[in-house]
Write a structure and sequence with these properties.
- With 230 residues, the protein is of the alpha+beta class.
- The protein has two domains: 8-137 and 187-215, Glutaredoxin (3-Layer(aba) Sandwich), CATH 3.40.30; 141-181, no CATH class.
- Helices cover 35% and strands 20% of the residues.
- Strand 9 and strand 10 (209-214) form a beta hairpin.
Length: 230
């Protein structure tokens, strides 16, 4: 599922090549609590997903499980962070706990996995083996900031100014409607300027942010291996 960064929250933004800020988390649902600053000498790979996100379960999470199985003995930590930037009634802590404790999936994820034959008796056919936490969600009042609206649009459509006036008015209204409908800001999602889910974050042994990717990249194994070899 795709989304570009919305309005800015008052915290330090993560930048590739600089020290990675700690993840903003509300609760570790599976595994022992930790964070980036506690994991020196480890490479940290973070898979960011939504519970109600078919692409996360068809592509992103299986890719993360593969990385976990292949590199867990090579000083690589794999974590999952469940976030929410839409479908706030489905992308909840309760549904994340349901997934991790019983394997049961919900909503669009359940429908898509069923279509692809990856469900057994309405339950997920695999278990997430690595630690998983819930992103910190802060309520938003839905205020519309004109600067924030245009920043959002320019990141999505760099040549926006060259578009026809009717088109521009339509897009501006759509963005305003979206911002009004937002109930929460997901802090890790925003801090790392993620574009959607599934996304991945890679931090090296020195705590430096080395990569942020959206979607299934297909070359994450090579990136991890290159960090191991450094």
């Amino acid at each position: 599922m795709f989304l570009t960064q919305t309005k800015t929250i008052n915290f330090v933004k993560a930048k590739i090549g600089e020290k990675a800020p700690n993840l903003k988390l509300s609760e570790w649902v599976q595994g022992l609590p930790s964070n980036i600053d506690q994991e020196g000498d480890h490479i940290v790979f973070v898979e960011v997903f939504q519970v109600n996100c078919p692409g996360c379960f068809l592509n992103g999470i299986p890719e993360a499980i593969n990385i976990y199985n292949k590199f867990r003995d090579d000083g690589v930590l794999v974590w999952g962070v469940a976030t929410a930037f839409e479908d706030f009634d489905k992308n909840t802590l309760e549904n994340l706990m349901l997934l991790l404790k019983t394997g049961e999936v919900i909503g669009d994820t359940k429908q898509a996995l069923g279509q692809y034959g990856k469900l057994d008796d309405s339950k997920l056919s695999y278990k997430i083996p690595f630690p998983v936490a819930m992103d910190s969600l802060k309520k938003t009042n839905g205020d519309i900031n004109e600067t924030g609206t245009m920043d959002y649009i320019y990141k999505q459509i760099p040549d926006f100014d060259s578009k026809p006036e009717d088109y521009k008015k339509q897009i501006i209204q759509q963005v305003k409607d979206y911002m009004k409908s937002k109930k929460f800001e997901a802090e890790t999602f925003e801090m790392y300027s993620l574009q959607g889910t599934p996304s991945s974050i890679i931090v090296d042994r020195k705590g430096i942010l080395r990569d942020v990717s959206f979607g299934q990249m297909g070359n994450l194994e090579q990136r991890i291996q290159s960090l191991i070899n450094e």
